[in-house]
Amino acid sequence: MKLSCLYKALLCLLLLVSFRSWSDDSYNSDKFKRDLRYQNPQFMWKTWDRIFRVDGSFFSNSNVTDLERILESQWSRAVQQQNLDLMIKAAIPLSMVYHNQAKFSHGLPFFEFLFKHQKQVPAYYWRHILIKLEEEYRGKNEIEKAIPIRRLRIKLGYIKTFWEIYRECGLFEDALRDFKQFQTVPPRGDYRRLFYLQRLGWIYTDLKNYKKARETYAQGYNEVAEVRKAAKAVYLPRELRYWEGLFKGLMAQCDMEMGNYSQVIPMLQFDIRASIDNPDNQIGKEISLARAYLHIGRMESAKYYMDHARILMAEKVIPPVKLMMLGAYADYYATLNRYDSAYYFNRALQAYQDTVNAHINRNKSILLLGQLELVKHRAESMKSLHQVEVYSEASKLQDFKIKLLSIILGTILFGSILLYVNFRQKGLLTQNRIQLDLEHERNAVLLKELHHRVKNNLQVIYSLLNLQKRRTKNEESIDLITALQNRIQTIALVHNNLFQTDEMEYVALDSYVRTLVEHLQQMYAQDELNPVTIDFKMQDSIRLRFERIGTLGLIINEIVSNAFKYAFVGDSAGVLTIEIEQKDTQVILSIEDNGPGRVEEINQNSNLGMRLIRILSEQMGATYTLHQSQGIKHLLTFTI
Fold this sequence. Notes:
By secondary structure, this protein is an alpha+beta fold. It is about 75% helix and about 5% strand. It has 24 helices and seven strands. The strands form two sheets. The chain has a five-stranded mixed sheet, with helices on one face. Helix 20 runs antiparallel to helix 21 (about 510-525). The longest helix is centred in the C-terminal third of the chain and has 67 residues, at about 405-470. About 30% of the residues are buried. Mean pLDDT is about 80; it is low at about 15-25, about 370-385 and about 390.
């Protein structure tokens, strides 16, 4: 009998402990559905506030839907009752629930509401609200609203750097410099060190320095063990497992960008399994995993992960991940030879990339305007200080020269008028100069955007021709399409060079010719047993205007294409020599092959390419001649 009672007592104690652990378990999927106490706004707030202040782990991806529903209902009732206290207590957790799901359109109104009612918000939440409010503005590309929030955070001493703002504006070098200069490096074993290494790796990835980014992520992966050793039982094991998976997945993405696919699939799978409570990370890694499966030809697996990521992406605002997703779908359908679908996603990708680029350019302009206003404000402050010094000196003179008071006052008045006129003129000049600088910057951005759009349109035409070429069986038609593609690529390279540099009218001739010839070599010589050797002998200081280099590029395209098609036959090693030099105002271009061709045969059998070379040479005002050397030598002389 005593044993039976003891058994019952132990069973009740076990149930009580289980219920307590169940109610406090942040990751229990049925937590909010079965425990009706969470329907009470005061109980919900006390529980949220207590757990959030310890480690912030109040909910998971498995129960976030129920939590969101309950909080939305509590917010609606508080609004109906016009109870500001209950509205604050519902808005704080609800805004953070939306934020952690990247639902910025839902969360932003609540953060703005909390910002407006700062005095009613508990002080220990203020830092988190400012961080997330700025992140939401940046996520929605409202950089003009994010900058004042960042300045407020700096003023309050919460942060010292502008690196995220620079990164959002595409100024990655400035972001890296600002991050390294002002971001404090946490010590080994400190949990914050994981965040530091993750963000540093992001910037290296933005700069496309994938080797350095991978080294940083590998350092972060090793640091997790140090944090686990130092933290002991302070941090949940599942949270550190998430960081292990995160850094593994980031290393895998760097490997893929560098062309190394051998180990990336298990690394990405580990990251996805560890990211069950972070769907945003899960989405990006599932798209990367789909690309890895595409690489090895496992099409069904690739489609599964792309579609699953697309479902998780609903209602979220993550531009880089959306670009990855559209690119993955385009590659998938292109691999299946479903060119209509591939073209659709390529167009969608290009349109969204243009939108992102437009936002980046707009953000750069806003950031530049903010810097100019700051400089103007400082200049006006210096003027005011100078005026105070002038009046102070005048006051001292009155004490020493009381008899000349009227004269001194008149002098001060006259001098003040002169200073006022002088400062006003300077202020107007400064304002006009700033306006001119802004207008110049805007025109430069618009012109670069124009070159970028022309290049993109030419690339679309190039891709359409590529689709047509794949469907064409006739060799003569294929050769004709290839020649058209090369001429389009020749023009696109000019616009690409102008878009990537700060030059608005001039292009460096040596780099342009090298890029063009290497492209043609890939087009014509990639399957040869004896690849053609290109010998460049080019003066590196020659720069040509946009109009002339486009015409010259078409001439070079025809000459080099003919050389690859006709000059290099048999088993002998082919050599193509390209020389460019400038003598005074004359530029001499020489393209020579070591093939068996003869000048007489070329002149007798003049094709479209040769006629095009002569017509374009006349348009440039250039002298074009053919010479018999080891093979055929094309000589073009023109004036800069």
